[in-house]
Amino acid sequence: MHIDIIPYEGVVVPGKVEGKTVVVIDVLRATSVMIRGIGNGARCFIPVTSVEEAREKAKEINRKNVLLAGERDTRPVSGFDLGNSPQDYTAEKVSGKTVIMTTTNGTKALNKVKMAKEIFIGAFLNASAVAKKLENSEDVVLVCSGTNNTFSLDDGMCAAMIVDLLPVKTRIKLTDFAISMLKAYRSGKQNLHQLLEDCYHLNLLIDRGFEADVNYCLQVDKYDIVPRMQAGEIS
What's the CA gap between 133 and 225, in Å, rounded? Predict the structure, then answer.
């Protein structure tokens, strides 16, 4: 198995992902939200790149039980039904619903990998399930969404955790960046919160009152599901 880790969505190019098995990671918070939402019965998520596109998509699909969701600069979008806090995605709110979502980083990354062979959704919340899903793949790319076109440590450490959780019998070849991420993760994996304590985006969310979101998203293996994106829908 060959494994690459892409540091942030801004450097995703077709040649890096075309025909490969891709996992998109946005720990804080889009992919964590999607995992919780699907776990609580959401029909699907449709990731779009802009607020305007989200509103147009809602009109276009003309489907009952549609929710608009997302954030800009960490805060909920005015007029949308939901923001980007995982606690909001309860079964009462999302079960049976189509969630059209736009976020600053994660949904952009998802829209850049559509030419991949398979696209899965990953986070700490389902890291072991993702690793199990990948164990028979040949060419894997873990796409870190990052923060505002820069690398974000939370995504990198999640990607490394997934690699570290692959069965010992799996023969893997890593790119240099993937090797660096794996070594960094193994140096402090015994305490995930401590490993990430200096992470810029994590601390920005805490400073803005989203500490509960951070604590939720740093839970490991809360879910045994791996949402998949097909034809632009995640379910």
Answer: 10
- Upstream peptide bond of 171 is cis (omega within 30 degrees of 0): no
Residues 6+ apart with CB under 8 A from 135: 166, 167, 170
Task: Compute the distance between CA of residue 78 and CA of residue 186 in angstroms, rounded to an integer.
Answer: 41
Nearest to 155 by CA among 2, 1, 4, 5: 5
In the chain, the DSSP E strands lie at 2-6, 21-25, 44-47, 66-72, 75-76, 98-102, 118-122, 139-144, 173-174, 229-230, 233-234
Q: Which residues of 141-172 are buried (b: 16+ CB within 10 A; e: fewer)?
A: bbbbbbbeeebbbbbbbbbbbbbebbeeeeee
What is the rounded CA–CA span in Å between residue 119 and residue 124?
17
For the stretch 158-201, pLDDT in tens is 999 999 999 877 789 999 999 999 999 999 999 999 999 999 99
Asked if residues 141 and 109 have their Cβ atoms less than 8 Å apart, the reply is: no
- The helix/strand/coil state of 58 is helix
What pLDDT, in 10s, does the model give residues 136-154?
Answer: 999 999 999 999 999 999 9
Between the CA of residue 10 and those of 139, 155, 228, what are the distances in Å?
Answer: 21, 14, 22
Q: Which two tokens stand for residue 194?
A: 């401590």
The whole-angstrom separation of Cα 76 and Cα 12 is 26
Question: Between β-strands 118-122 and 44-47, what pairing exists: parallel, antiparallel or unpaired?
Answer: unpaired
What domains can you pick out in the chain, each with its CATH number? 2-234 (3.90.1560.10)
Average pLDDT along the chain: 97
